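Q: Here's a chain of 213 amino acids. Please give me its 3D structure as tokens.
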Amino acid sequence: MNSGRVIIGYYICMKTECPSFTGFSADRFLSVSDCLCDHEPQIFRCHGWGNSGDDKEYRHRYFADEEEYIQLSLKLRELFENGLFCSDGRFMRREDAVYFYTRLFKKHDCTLVAVSTDKEYASLAGDKDFSDKYEKYSTDMEVIGCDVIGWDISVFHSFLCNSLHKRFDGLKFSRYGLLDADLSVAKNIASEIQGKGEPVDWIPVEICKPDIT
């Protein structure tokens, strides 16, 4: 256990094409930035959240039947109202993320990831009322890369969004499109790009795949 690290949330990331502007290739590109990747479930397409009620296309794509759709969308709404699920797709608790991932999205080529950072950065990773919900970092996860992200009202941006990675020579990226380096490198990058790109506080994060067994 790393006592100086917390998990700021979990995302179910839909595999997407690696954007050409990044200048590198990645065969399973994912990101915790809404600008670059879709995150599931999408709460505003679930029961009771749209102007016209339900999104039928979304319902038929992921849910077995009407009963499952209503049951799980109401469960998601309850998490949202209790500050345990965010509008950008971030789960605050591992148990909830694993439940939805295994129940609905594992079979749809999605990847469940945990996002962690040092405690000194955690207060910058969303609204202040999130901080008491951050979980302790656990070593029983597969590290798949790092990123540098910044919270902007209700979503995260990545340093890839503004091509800020191109300011640095020799950076390598994994098959997931994540920085292929440890957190210390991400910290140095975050320090160098403060005040550049989006008007956010850039924070270094480690991206892991949690054990779902």
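Q: Can you summarize the key feature?
A: Residues 66-81 form the longest helix (16 residues).
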